[in-house]
Design goal:
By secondary structure, the chain is of the alpha/beta class. About 45% of the residues lie in helices and about 10% in strands. It folds into two domains: about 5-15 and about 90-215, 3-Layer(aba) Sandwich (Rossmann fold), CATH 3.40.50; about 15-80, Putative phosphatase, domain 2 (DNA polymerase, domain 1), CATH 1.10.150.240. The chain binds 6-O-phosphono-beta-D-glucopyranose and magnesium ion.
Length: about 220
């Protein structure tokens, strides 16, 4: 384990709930039903891919300009939710885990589909921990394509097989696996069953626990 790459939304900060609320509000405006189950399938996808899924569900065909307007609307609501995000919204145990990785000389990367990643890292004061940040502004293909993680590993100068990815989304687990990375799911074992190991929280987790889980 030379490096760990973390997804952001739902892994290191509790922002997944705000994406849900903003998409739900948009879906409501479009008279499309949208519940937690629908939301689960959007986790990890880019903004545009998420909108496409919602429109397919509602059977709506819209032109690109209208889609842009809808995405801007959703992002405006999302930004309102996260505008006063504070370091307290970092998920339990995350900071402690990052500190332990640093002490052991394990490199740390972010691999997120979000275009708002840098802002969240700054607001939560997590930015200084990351040796590399790859987000939705720097990739052509979004998860489940492995590009975001491959790009991160390349910048960290490590091989995928030397990296453990932490993911809360099925699309993210698929991305990590198809890139040849180790992957730990963060959340519900039923959703993340393809991951090599699943944790519910970082609370109390140590880097050596991760090595043990993955036989590294
Ligand atoms: C992912 C989230 O991290 O980022 C998705 O899991 C979200 O729910 C995606 O749609 C894109 O985020 P943003 O901030 O660029 O709209
Ligand atoms: Mg996520």
């Amino acid at each position: 384990m030379k490096a760990c790459i973390f997804d952001m939304d739902g892994v290191i900060v509790d922002s997944a709930k705000y994406h849900f609320l903003a998409w739900q509000r948009l879906a409501e405006e479009l008279s499309i039903d949208f519940d937690h189950h629908d939301n689960e399938a959007l986790k990890g996808l880019s903004r545009v891919d998420s909108l496409e899924r919602i429109l397919i569900k509602g059977g709506l065909l819209l032109d690109n300009n209208t889609k842009e307007v809808l995405m801007e609307k959703k992002n405006k609501w999302y930004l309102e939710f996260i505008s006063d995000m504070r370091p307290e919204e970092v998920l339990p145990g995350v900071k402690e885990f990052l500190v332990m990785l640093k002490e052991e000389g394990v490199k740390i990367g972010l691999g997120s589909s979000s275009k708002n990643a840098q802002m969240i890292l700054d607001k939560t004061k997590l930015a200084p921990f990351f040796d590399v940040v790859v987000d939705g502004n720097q990739v052509t293909f979004s998860k489940p394509d492995p590009e975001v993680f491959i790009n991160g590993a390349r910048q960290l100068n490590v091989l995928p097989s030397e990296v453990v990815v932490f993911e809360d989304a099925e699309a993210g687990v698929d991305a990590a696996l198809s890139g040849g990375f180790h992957v730990i799911g963060v959340g519900d074992v039923n959703v993340l069953s393809k991951a090599e190991g699943v944790i519910r929280t970082f609370e109390g987790l140590t880097p050596s626990d991760v090595r043990t889980m993955l036989n590294l």
